[in-house]
Amino acid sequence: MILLADLVDHYRNELERLHGHELLPSHHNALNAIRRCRNQYSAVMLLECKDCQQSVILPHSCGHRSCPHCQQHESQEWLERQRSKLLPVRYFLITFTVPAQLRSLFWNHQHKTYDLLLKTAWQTIDSFSRRDRRLKGRTGAHAVLHTHNRRLDYHPHVHLIVPAGAINQQSREWREKKSNVLFWANNLARVFLAKWFEALRVASLRCEEQLPNEWVVDCTDVGHGEQALVYLGRYLYRGVLPEKNIIANTAGEVSFRYKDNRGQEQIRTMPGAEFLWLLLRHVLPRRFRRVRDFGILHANCKRLVQLLQLVLKVPIPSPRLPLQRSPVLCQSCGKAMTLIARMVRITEHQLC
After folding, report:
1. Which of 170, 171, 185, 292: CA 20 to 30 A from 22?
2. Beta bridge partner(s), residue 48
3. Is 84 in the same domain as 35?
4. d(CA 249, CA 335)
5. What is the pTM of this model?
6. In the structure, what pLDDT confidence band is assigned to residue 201 with cuts at 50, 70 and 90?
7. 281, part of any domain
8. Judgement on whether residues 22 and 169 belong to the same structural domain of the protein
9. In DSSP terms, which residues pair with 149 in a beta bridge?
């Protein structure tokens, strides 16, 4: 397997020569973290087996959310939390896509525009839910920001998983919509467009490009919602490209595979430095939260969701224990090993 850390070592100098003026501190942090993940550059941990006294030294992972090796545990924890909020209604996946003419504005003001995109998308859905003749109340949404398309080009958009139900805040009545269409996409697009430009005005941001009159919004029935959660959880952490999809590194060019909109496998090849730059364009600003819960699915409404599940007769599973990380097993006796020291630099420990 071709390791991303090796590609960083190989092409970083060329990347900095070509794109050094565009690299942000978050990009340098990502490169440094990936290069030091579970290899000879990492800090190490010391483990010992209490049964047979065997000891072992293992390199630390970097823990960066753009690293393809890391945060599998965090991704699974997120998925379990969202599963615990599922209601017995149909769910819809609503996607708001930024037109190409706005991408330079997004790139130059990432933190602010990403935040506005998430908030404006939710405000649009919330306004439709409150005015809908069947719902007449507040719904909720799990929102996830993505910055890439299938070819990994820069393509900001936001996905929201929305239940086809809402709570009327006056009567405290739960209302469910059984139609195959939650909201019409064209209507969503028009309202989103108006709210977006108002948000830009308030944020003192301007776009000099000529924008299209119609924006792309999609609203798709996704059944009970779990499959959509799994799809979104795939790209929350661990970067945008699994290392298994990097298939070649020859003559200064890197090739990777992806699936197009028809599910057909395609291969894309580019110079190694441009490949790194392609990945770095999807590194989010430091401390930016790409995953947010809104409305009745917000963390503050946990008791409300539990009450809804009780009223709607959702089978309540037995309490789940917190997900535990897999222990390191002793190669001699097979027992779980005990952590003795962590984050030890290779020159600081006599056993190294």
Report:
1. 292
2. 55, 338
3. no
4. 40
5. 0.87
6. very high
7. no
8. no
9. none
